Fold each of these.
Amino acid sequence: MTIRISVINPNTTSSMTALIEGEARRVAGPGTVVTGRTPAMGPASIESHYDEALAVPGLLEVIREDAEADAFVLACFGDPGLDAAREVASRPVIGIAEAAMKTASLLGRSFSVVTTLSRTVGRAWDLARVYGLERQCAGVHACDIPVLELEEDRDRTYGVILAFAKTAMAQDGSDAIVLGCAGMAGLPELLTAELGVPVVDGVAAATVMAEGLVRQGLRPSTHGELAPPPPKAYTGLLAGFGRR
Amino acid sequence: MTIRISVINPNTTSSMTALIEGEARRVAGPGTVVTGRTPAMGPASIESHYDEALAVPGLLEVIREDAEADAFVLACFGDPGLDAAREVASRPVIGIAEAAMKTASLLGRSFSVVTTLSRTVGRAWDLARVYGLERQCAGVHACDIPVLELEEDRDRTYGVILAFAKTAMAQDGSDAIVLGCAGMAGLPELLTAELGVPVVDGVAAATVMAEGLVRQGLRPSTHGELAPPPPKAYTGLLAGFGRR
Amino acid sequence: MTIRISVINPNTTSSMTALIEGEARRVAGPGTVVTGRTPAMGPASIESHYDEALAVPGLLEVIREDAEADAFVLACFGDPGLDAAREVASRPVIGIAEAAMKTASLLGRSFSVVTTLSRTVGRAWDLARVYGLERQCAGVHACDIPVLELEEDRDRTYGVILAFAKTAMAQDGSDAIVLGCAGMAGLPELLTAELGVPVVDGVAAATVMAEGLVRQGLRPSTHGELAPPPPKAYTGLLAGFGRR
Amino acid sequence: MTIRISVINPNTTSSMTALIEGEARRVAGPGTVVTGRTPAMGPASIESHYDEALAVPGLLEVIREDAEADAFVLACFGDPGLDAAREVASRPVIGIAEAAMKTASLLGRSFSVVTTLSRTVGRAWDLARVYGLERQCAGVHACDIPVLELEEDRDRTYGVILAFAKTAMAQDGSDAIVLGCAGMAGLPELLTAELGVPVVDGVAAATVMAEGLVRQGLRPSTHGELAPPPPKAYTGLLAGFGRR
Amino acid sequence: MTIRISVINPNTTSSMTALIEGEARRVAGPGTVVTGRTPAMGPASIESHYDEALAVPGLLEVIREDAEADAFVLACFGDPGLDAAREVASRPVIGIAEAAMKTASLLGRSFSVVTTLSRTVGRAWDLARVYGLERQCAGVHACDIPVLELEEDRDRTYGVILAFAKTAMAQDGSDAIVLGCAGMAGLPELLTAELGVPVVDGVAAATVMAEGLVRQGLRPSTHGELAPPPPKAYTGLLAGFGRR
Amino acid sequence: MTIRISVINPNTTSSMTALIEGEARRVAGPGTVVTGRTPAMGPASIESHYDEALAVPGLLEVIREDAEADAFVLACFGDPGLDAAREVASRPVIGIAEAAMKTASLLGRSFSVVTTLSRTVGRAWDLARVYGLERQCAGVHACDIPVLELEEDRDRTYGVILAFAKTAMAQDGSDAIVLGCAGMAGLPELLTAELGVPVVDGVAAATVMAEGLVRQGLRPSTHGELAPPPPKAYTGLLAGFGRR
C-alpha cells in the first residue's frame, strides 16, 4: 500500500515548504510518498492572529485541489483552520501543534514549548487547552526570532533554541521540549542528543500520525460537525470557494 | 459625545444586515450612531467551520476601511476572527456570542443556547469554554432552521424558537435563554414576555457593551498579542491584505 | 428614557460613597441618573471575610428600601451578598469585581488585579474562578494600603498603585490591569495613559453594564434560585428583615 | 482529654438545634462533650441566599461568645459564613456540606445529594466546586420539603427522602448518598440499611472531623487570610460586632 | 530499518494474546515485526482494581526480560502500570486506552467508549481525565460481557457491541466510537462500515503510535520521574524484582 | 466500643512501621487499638512508580489476612493501590496523602507539600488533582532525602524539612504545610510550634479519619466499582491472590 501525505506549508514561502518536506520524509515509513505544498495566496509568514486567519483560504484551496493525498499535515504551529480543513478534506488532517503536544504527552510528565514570537505565546496556550494538555504544558517560551529568519542562519538559530530549551526546562521543571514552529524542522535530532531529553518536532510527529490513521483506515467523522460543508453562494474575491 | 458603532454582519446577505442594525439601534443610548456593514466577499451565510473561516477576510476588510467607528460588533454567533479583528481595529470589537453569554451570566444560575444548525452546537460549546462560561452554559439546542430561512417566515421562526426555548429550560434546568444566531435579532422582547425569563440577544448585548467600553475610554491592549500585526508581503487573491 | 442607577457603597464611610458616585457619573450615558448610597449599619471598611459578611445586611436594607432604582451597583471588590441582592432587588445588580473582570476579558489575553490588603488576595482569586476567568486572571497583587487610607493622600496612592501595576504586568505577562478596590475609583484614566494598557475600574465598568441591562429590558431571572426569597419569621436584632 | 464541640444551628428554631445535637452525640467519641447552640438573631430557617446571608451575624455572635469550645460545627448545608467563622473562632470550624462531601469522597466513585428546596440546588453545586468535588458529586436532587416541615412528620420525611435517594442513584449512577440538610440528621442509619450504600449526614461527619482536628492539635492558619479580622468601627444595628 | 514492537497482553490468557497480536499486525507498517507476549503471573482477566493492580508485576517482568523490543504496547484498556513500565523500559510504552482516546480526538468532536463491565466505567473516565480528554469523552457504556466471553461467540459479541455503539452515539451526541477492551480487537473495520463513523481500537492505535515514536527516535524522558527506578532490596515473593 | 485500626506500612522496613504506629497512637481516641503492619513481600522503600506498583501485592495480602481490623490506614504518600484495597477490605481504607490533603483543606487557603525525592513530585500533584485539591495545593517541594535516611538522623531531617517548609510557604504564599512521606511522622508538633502554621502529617490525619468513619458506621460502597472483585484464576507467583 502506498500512502500519500501532503504536507502543507500554510505560508507562501517556498523555501520553508522544502524544509518541512524534508523533515516529513526523514520519518515517513517505507512506501509513503511525502509531497510539500505551498498555497497560492496569503501571508509570507504567520506571526499574528491576522496572518493566521488570512492563511486559511490558501490552505483550504490546496486541500480542495489535491484529490490524490491520503492525508494532510498542516505545518504551522497555530494549527490554522484545522476544523475547516477536516470538513473539506474528508481525509485525515493533522496540525503540527496538536501532533507535537500529543506526542510529547507520551514521553514524560510535562513539556515546554519553544516558539518564535512573544505575541504567539497565548495562542500556544490556547491550543494546549483545546487539546486537553494544559497541565502537561509547563511553559511556552518565545525566542523572538521572526519566522523567516529561522532559516537564514541555522547555526545561530540552533544556538538560540538550545539556550531557550535549557532555560525552559530549568524554569518549568519539564522533561521534554516541543518545538513551536514549523521552521524549526530539522533540529530535533541534534537537540535531543545535546539536551538529553526528548525534543519533538511537530512536522515529524504529524507525519507519522497521519500515516498511522491511514493504516488504520480512519477518516474524520462525517456524522456530525465535520461533515462536508453545505454548498452555498460566495461572493467577491472569494467567489471561487462556493464552487464544488 | 457621539459614539459610532459599526455592526458588521459577517455574511454577505444584506437583508440580514438590516435586521441586525435595527436590533442594535433599539438598545443603543441617546447620541449613539449605529451603522450596519456588509462585507464585499465571503459566504451568504455561515453554517460550517469552512464558511466561518472564509467569512473572516471580508470582515477584516470592513474594519480596515472603517476609520470612523469607535467600536465594532461582529454579528455572527461563532465570533469569527475576533482576535484578528481586535488586532487590526485598535478599537473595541465585541462578538455577539461573547456578549450574549457574558450578559446572561449576570442574570441567573445558568442559560441555555438556542441556535440554528446541529453542526454548530460544538462551536457554541467551544466558545462557552473560551469565555469561561462552560458551567453556566447548561445546554445548546439546535432548531435546525438554516440561517437564511430565519427571516423568511418570522411567525414560524418565532414559534419554533419558543418551543425550543421551553424544552431547553425544562431539560437543562436553566433560568435564562441565549439566542444563538444574529438572525434571531428582534425576537427577545416577545420571548422574554412569553417565557418569563431573561432572553438575551447577542446583537443587543454587544451593542451596549461596545458603547460601555467607549464611554470608559477602553481599547484592546496593544501591549501584547493584540498589538497591530507586523506588516509583510501577501500574495495572490489576498495580496491587498498586506498593504496598510 | 431616564435610567436610575443606585451605586451602593457596602461600607459605612460616606466620603467613599462620594468618590464612587463621581466615578459612576463620569461614565454614565446621557439621561442616566446616578445616586450613591451608604448603608445605615455595618463596618467602616471591608478588609476580612468577617467585615464582608457583616456588610451584607446593610446593603440588603438599602436595596429593600430603594424602589426607584432601575439597577444597582455593589461597590466593593468582594461582591458581597451579590446573589442575595439579586433575589431581593428583582432588578439588575452588578458587583464591581464581576464587572471589572468581565470587562478586562474583552480587552486582552490576561489581566492582573491590584488590590489593597494581602488577606483579600484569596477572595479575588475565588471570584475570578466563580466568574470563569481564572485563566485570564494572571495575578492578584496586594499593595497593602488599608482601604480608608486610599483616600487620604491620593498622590501617594497613585504612585504606589502605578508601581504595583508595573510589577504585576512584568511578573504576570498580562496586558491589562484591574483595580481591585472601589476606593481606587478615579485613577484609571491617569493610569491608562501612563501604563499604555487598559486599566479597568469596577465602578465604571459596573455602571455601564447596569445601564446596558436596563436598556435591553433584562432583569435577574425569577424562574429559579434568584426568585424573591420566601417570607418567614426573623428574630432578634435582624427581626426587621423578615418583614416585606 | 475532654474535647468540647459546639454544634451551631444557624437558624433560630431550637427544636432543630436539639435534633442536631442528638446526631452529633451519637457519633462523638468517649470523652467528647457536645453542646447545641441557637443564635439570638436571624431567620427561622434558611431557604434562600437572603436567609443564608442574614444567618451569618447570629452564628458569628455565637462563636464570639463561646470561649469554651475546642471546635465548632456549622449545621446548615450552605456552610454560611464559614470563612468568617474561621477568622473569629481561631479554632476549628467545620461546615456540614464540606464535611459530608469530603466524607462521601472516601467511600465510592461518586455521591448524589438529596436536599430540600429546588432553589438551593445551585448552592450545593457551588460548594461541591469550591471543595474540589465537582466530579464526584453526580447529582443534586431537591425533595421540595421546606426545612421546618422535615421534623413534622418524620415517617413521611423518611419515605420521601428514601424515594429521592433511590431515584438519584439510578439517574446519576452514584454509589453513595449525601443528606443535604441538617434537618435530615437522624436518618442515615435507617437509610444506609435500606439502600445498601453509605448515607452520609453532615452533622455526624462534621462532628468526628472536628474531634479529629482537635486530637491532632490543628487550628485554622493565622498566617494568611484566616488571621483574626482587624478591629474597626461598626455602626447601626451591628455596632456590637466592632467590639472585641 | 526493522522496528520490533512487543504487544503485551496484561492478563494470562494466551488466546487473547493471539487475537491482539493479529490486530497489531494488521496495521503495522512494512518492515515492522510484531510479537505478542503473555505474562507468567497474574489474573486470567482484568475486571477490577484488584485484578489490575495484580497484573502489573507480570507485565513489568515481560518488559524487563525483553531487550529486543524497540517499543511496547500494553493491551488492557485500564493502561495498568503505564508509568512504572515507562521507567523500566527506557523505550516507548503505549497503553491502549491512551492511544485509542488520543486517536479518536483527531477524528471528531467527541467519542463514546463501549467497554465490558459496569464496574470499569469509572476507571475509563479517570483515564480520560488523566489524558486531558474528559470533554471529548462524551460517554462510557458497559455492555456487561465478561472479558473472556468476548472471544467465545464473536457474532454475538459483534451484535451486542454494535447495539451499544448505536445507543451511545444517540445518547451522547458523539461522532466516533472507542472500543474499551483489548478483547474487542478485530471488530473495528466491520463496525466502521456499519456505523458510518470512525471506530477506534486501542491495539491498532497503540501499534502505529509506537512505530511512529521509534521512527522519530523518541524515548521516554529519563530527565525526571521516568528515569530508571533506583535499585533496592525487595523481599518475599517479589524478591526477584529487586535484581537488575 | 473498641475500634481497631490497622496502620499498614506499604514498604517492608519494620522500623518505619514502628514509627508510623507511634504517630497513629498519639492521635487515636480513647478505646481505639492501633496496630502497625508490615507486608511480607515488596520493596524496602517506595521511591518510583515501579516500587509503588510492586508494593501493592504485599499490602493487599495484609488486608486480606486481617479480619479483625475495623479500618485500615495506608501509610505511603503515593496512596498505592487505594481503590484495590477498598475493594478487598470492605471496610474503610484511608490513604495518607488523601487524608493529609483533605485535612489541610480545612485549615487555610492553600497548603504546600514537603516530600522526599524530586521524582515523586509529579505523583503528589496527580493525587492533589484526583482528590480535587489542585487549586489548594500551592506547591510540592522535594528535600531529596531518600525515604530510609529520614529515620537515621532525626535532628538533621527535622532541620532540612523545617528549611524546606519555610521556603515553600514564602514561594507559594501558602498558609499550611503537608508532610509528604510517612517517614516524617512524629515531626508535625515541633514544626507547627516553630512555623506558626498548621503542619499536617498524613498518618495522624488518616487515623482520626478512619476512626470517624467507623463511628459513623460507614464503609466503602459495594454498590458499584468498589464491590468485592469477582473471583478468578491467578497464575504463577501470584496464584495465591486468586483464592478467597
Amino acid sequence: MELFFLGTSAGVPTRARNVAALAIRKRNAKAWYLVDCGEGTQQQILRTPLSLNRLEAILITHVHGDHCYGLPGLLSSASMTGRERPLTIVAPARIRAFLEAIQATTGLHLTFAIDFIAVEDLAEPLALPDFALEAAALSHGVASYGYAFTERGVERKLDIAGLEAAGVTRGPLWGRIAKGEDVTLDNGSLVISDDFLLSQRRARKLVVGGDNDTPALLDELCTGADVLVHEATYDRAVVERLGTDNQHSTAAAVASFAQHKGLANLVLTHFSPRYQQDPGATPSIDDIEYEARSQYRGNLFLANDFDLYRLSHDGVLTR
Amino acid sequence: MELFFLGTSAGVPTRARNVAALAIRKRNAKAWYLVDCGEGTQQQILRTPLSLNRLEAILITHVHGDHCYGLPGLLSSASMTGRERPLTIVAPARIRAFLEAIQATTGLHLTFAIDFIAVEDLAEPLALPDFALEAAALSHGVASYGYAFTERGVERKLDIAGLEAAGVTRGPLWGRIAKGEDVTLDNGSLVISDDFLLSQRRARKLVVGGDNDTPALLDELCTGADVLVHEATYDRAVVERLGTDNQHSTAAAVASFAQHKGLANLVLTHFSPRYQQDPGATPSIDDIEYEARSQYRGNLFLANDFDLYRLSHDGVLTR
C-alpha cells in the first residue's frame, strides 16, 4: 500500500504545504483513491504519476473548504480530459448539496456519473475495488468522519496439507483450485477452492481521520490497524496561547491515543500554518514532532507535501 | 501600471500554466485588483508580493469554473488571515448565487463584508480607488464580460499661464491651488483649483476581455486603450481540426481586431492545454504567436504564469 500526501496544511495553503488531500493506492497500481480534496488538489496531482481517469473513489471527511473546495475543479478537469467511468464519492450529505449547488450555479457539466454515498448511511463496509471501506463519526463542529481502508484480494496459496488429507491427488486439478475454481473429482465429490486456499498474510488496514478533537472516537476503527493518519493541527503550547483548539487535536492527544491503542505507525498531518519549517523558528514544526514523541514510542512521521509512504506486507511503514 | 499574470491556461491547469487570474496594480502599489480567480489563484498569489489584505476588488468575467472556482478559497483565506476591510466584487449575477450557495452548504463565514455589484447593472463607470471601471458584454454562451481600467488620479500641474492671465499673483495661493484647494482672492473672487490644474499626461487605459468568440464586441471599450488582454484559446488550424471553437477566439481573430483598432499593445492568454511549450511540438504555443503576428503589427506578447508587465506613462508595455 502506498500513501501520497498531496496537502498537509490546515485552513490555508502555504508556499510549502497545500490544503488537505491524500492519495492511496496498492503498490504501483494505476487505480487510486483520494481522501479529501482541498483547493489546488488537481494541480498537486499534475506533479504525481496519478491519473484522474484511474481515480476509483473520493472520500471526503467533512465540508470545510480546506477539505473540499478542490472538488468542483477536479471533477470538471476529469470531464474535460474525457473521463466516462462512473466515480464513487463517499462524503457527508452536505457535500452532495455543495456539488449540486455548484452544478446549478456554474453550469458544471460532468461527462461521467457520480455514485454518491452519504457516509451517514454507511452501515456495512463498502466494497471498493481494492479496499473494504468503513467510517466512524468524529467530533469537529460540523459532521466529520474517519475512514478505514482494509485491503481486499490478499494473495492466497494452496493448502497442500489439506488437499492431501482430503485425498485430492497432486496434478492439474491443483492448478485449477489455485485459480479459485471449484472442481469435481472422479469420485463425484465437489472440492470448493475457498476451502483449500490460505491467505498468505493478514490484510493490511489504514485509518485516515478527518478533523477531530477527540482521537478516541477512532478507537473501534483503529482496532487491527497498521497505520493511523491523523491531524495534529497544534501542539499544547499554541493551544494554551490561543485559548482554543478550534475543535482540532494536539500532537500530544493523537500520539497518546496511538500509544494507548498500540498502533505501530502514526503519520501526523494538517499542521497550522503558524508552524514554520525552520527548526530555529518559534513555533517550529519540530515542536509538533517533539510533543508527539513524548507520548508515542512507535514509528512516527510528520507528513510533507509529496511524501510517498509505503506500507510493507508485514506492516512496516517507510517514507 | 503593472499586470501580473497568475494563470494563463484555458479550462484545465497544466504543470506550466494555472487557470485564469490576472492581478493589476499601479506601479509598486500595495493596493491591487484581481480579474478572474480560477482554482489555485490563492496559491499563485503566495508566490508574489501581493497581499490578500490589500486586494481592493475582484472582477469576474464569467461563471465558468476555470475563472471562478478559486473564489471561495481565496475569500476563506482572507478571512482566516484577518481581513476586516470590505471587498468589492464585480461579476455576473450568477457569481453571487454561486457564492451564496457555497456559504450555505459549506458554512463559509467571512470576517469582512462583500460589496457585490452585478456587472449587468453597471451603467456608469465605477470609481474604484485607482481606476474607473467600465464593462462590456461579450459572446460566450454564458454571460461573459470585458473590463476597462482607466487610471484615476493622474498627476496634474499648475496652469501658470492661465493663473497669470487670470491675474492670480504668484505666491502662497499658488501652492494651495496646486494642492487642489479652491481659494478666494483679496478682491473676493473665487478661484476653482480644477480650472488651473492641467493633467500632465493622458490617463492610461487597459482592457481585459473574458472568454469571447467575437472580439469586435470590445470595440467601444477599446477606444483609447493602451493595452488589450484577450484570450486566444486556439489557432485556426486547431479549430478546423476540432470542428468547433467552443465559443472562444482564435489568435487570428483577436490579432486582426487589435490591428484594425490600432491598439499599441496586445497580450494573448488563456491557451488551450493542447499547445505545448516545446517549439518543436505540434501544436506548439509558437503556432499561436505566429498566427497572431501574421495579423498584428503592434507590440505583441503571449502571457506566461508569473509574467510581470509594466505599462509606462507614455503607453509602452514591457515584460
Amino acid sequence: MTHYPFRLPAGPVDLTSIETNAAPGFKGGKKKGKAALFALGDELSDLQERLFAEGRSGSERRLLLVLQGMDTSGKGGVLRHTVGLVDPQGVKITSFKAPTEEERAHDFLWRIRRQLPEAGYIGVFDRSHYEDVLIARVRELATPEEIERRYTAINDFERELVDSGTTVVKCMLHISADDQKERLLARLDKPSKHWKFNPSDIDERAQWPRYREAYEIALERTNTEHAPWFVIPSGKKWYRNLAIGRLLDDTLRGMDLQWPVADFDVEVEKKRLVDEAPLS
Amino acid sequence: MTHYPFRLPAGPVDLTSIETNAAPGFKGGKKKGKAALFALGDELSDLQERLFAEGRSGSERRLLLVLQGMDTSGKGGVLRHTVGLVDPQGVKITSFKAPTEEERAHDFLWRIRRQLPEAGYIGVFDRSHYEDVLIARVRELATPEEIERRYTAINDFERELVDSGTTVVKCMLHISADDQKERLLARLDKPSKHWKFNPSDIDERAQWPRYREAYEIALERTNTEHAPWFVIPSGKKWYRNLAIGRLLDDTLRGMDLQWPVADFDVEVEKKRLVDEAPLS
C-alpha cells in the first residue's frame, strides 16, 4: 500500500498541528485533483465489482468506510463524489442520526451492528459508533465511566469485524473552526443550501474546543493496527474527495480481489445454448 | 412531459411487435448516446437533490422506479450507469430475490411495502411485486385465482402509493430471446462474467414463450394512468440507459421541485456567525 501522509501515527493527537488546507502527496491544484479522482473511477468500479462477485461466491470479505467529522466537513460530499464513483448496487450507506428511544434502550453498538455491510459490499457509515464517544462526551450523554468503557468496546468490536472478514477504513475529515465558519456563511448565502442549515449548527459550533478534545482522545484511543485512523485534510474539498478515493482504491487493491472461478463447465453450457431447441 | 415513443399504449400487448434493437426518439449511435447520458448527469443530480431537500422539509413526495425484465435485460446496467449518476445518499435500491419463508407466509405485497422509499428518496426496485404475477404464473407458484386477484391488488397498491406522494415509474427492459442468447454466450466467453452465470439460467430460458405471455398479460392489466408502463427497447445497452435517464429526468422535472424556503432569518444567522465570540 502507498505511503499515506494522512495515516495517523500512534500516540497523543494534536489536531491543531495538522494543517486542514494542505494537499499532502498530491502535486497539482483543484483542476488536476478533480481529474485524478475522475480517472480513478474505472479502476474503483472494477475493484468494487470483484469484491461483490467474491461475496456472491462465498467469500466473507467486505469493506467498511467510517466517515467522521464536524458539521460541514464534507461527509456528504465524499459520499456523492467518491463513493458515487462505484456501482450503487454494491454500496450500503447508513447515516446515523441521534439514536431513537429503542436504540437508546440497547448498548450503543446495537444499532451499529444492524447496519454492517453484507459480504461483498462496501458499507459506508456517515457518522458512526464514534458519536457515542464524541457528542456523548461533549454533551455528557453518558457517564465518564461509560465513555471510558466504550473506547475499549469499540476496539474489541472492530477487532471482531476485522477477524470476520471486514476491512475497516476510518477517516476523520479534518477542518478548522474557520473553515466551518466560511462554509456555514456560504450555506447562508445560497438559497439552494438553506435546507442544510439549522440555527442549532451555530450553537453546536460554540462547543468546538470540546469537540476537538473529544476527537483527539477518541482518535488516540482507537487508532489500532487493525483499524487505523486517517486524518484527511478537508479544507480543500477536491483534495478530501481524492484522498479518500485513493485510500479506497489502494485498500481494495491490497485485498488482491480475484474473479470467482466458474463452478460449471463453460464449454458444456455454451454448447447447450448453441444447440438449444427452438423456444416455442 | 416529452412524448415517449416507448410509453405503452392501453390495450392488449404483443411484445413480439416491439423492436428490441430500436432507438426511438434518438438520432445518433452508441457514442452520441453515451455522451447524451453523461450530459444528463448534472441536471439529474440537481433534481434528485431538490427532491431530497423537499423530503427533509416536510414534503411527502418520492419517486419509485420499478425495473422488470428477463435475465440479462440489463436491470443491473441501468442501476450502475443511470441511477449511478445521482448521489447514492438519496437512492434506495432493493433487489428482490426469491421470497424467504417468512415473506411467503405473508401477502405478496408485505415485503414490497417494507422496501418503499422514504420521503425525498428515489427508490429503485430491481425486480418487484411483478414477479408475483410473472414467475408465479409461469412456475405456478400460486393458484390462477390468486394470480388473478393480484393484478387488481397491484393496481390498488400503486394507486395508494401515488395518492400518498409517490411518483411510480415502471420500466420493462425489453429484449428478444436472441438478444438473451447472445448475452449469455458473451458471459460465458468472459471469465470476469462467469460469476453472473448459472446453468439454471438456460433452463429458465426454455420457458421464454410463457414468460412473454405472462409479461403481456401483466403489462396490459397494470398499465394504469396513475402508474403507466414504459417498454424500453433494450437490445442496445446505451439506448436503454439513456432512455431511462431521460425518463427519470423528465419525471423529476415534471414534479416542479423547489428548494425549500428557510424557516429561519438568514441575516440574523449570518450576523451571529460574524459576531461570534472566540471559540475557546
